[in-house]
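[09:14] KT: can someone run the structure on this one? pasting the chain below
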Amino acid sequence: MAAGLMVAVLVAFWLPCAPVGGDVAHAQAPARVQAPAAPGGAGVLPLPRIDIGVEPARSPQDVSTSLQILALLTVLTLAPAILIMLTSFTRIVIVLSFVRSALGSQQVPPNQVLIGLALFLTFFVMAPALGTANEQALQPYLRGEISQQAALDEAAVPFREFMLKQTRESDLALFTALAKAKRPANPKEVPMLVLIPAFAISELKTAFEIGFVIYVPFLVIDMVVASVLMSMGMLMLPPVMISLPFKLLLFVMVDGWNLVIGSLLQSFH
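[09:31] RB: done, structure tokens below
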């Protein structure tokens, strides 16, 4: 029985491969399956082919284009750092974080809300500089009126003016001395290598000053609640649980978000 089963299996595997005559071959030939036609009758819908490769440059223009693409990818990679270091984002996001910490509301508002609000406020504050850069640099460059280097120089002017307006002279003097650079005679001579870090620490100092002012009223509420609980002998009850509703009530009654955002935006003027 086992031998017969083995022979049957060998025959089944051997027959399709064995050379046979015309009729048998015609019978054994598999039927050709036609591809389903498209609804319009034009055949199968072709699939796109993606081809990515690296070829040697044949002219200096090819090298220039490759370097431009590399520079663009580098700028896109550094875009978050550029947004943080050259705009008002640093001060805004730190102040909003101080507001949440002063309220003691843990993760409310969540980080996504704070970052999103900070981004929109940053675009609001930087709108004049962005508009000037678009009118004086980007649009003339797209029309072919100025070169790429001239467009970059013109686009940096409004951001440079914004950073100089928000940077303290002591911070500029610090980084000028650390860089061992010559004392600039006017603001236009301040190099970007000195201006950017000076602007960053100036923004940090301003944000911490605003945060201290925000913390004071909420700190008073915490102290009053803690004193009342101690006088009542409720030492095991966390004061934060009792003070949080009062801090939220105070923040809502004085329209805290309106005051904080309004004062924060006015600090840039």
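[09:33] KT: thanks! Residues 1-33 have pLDDT under 50 and may be disordered.
[09:34] RB: yep, looked fine to me
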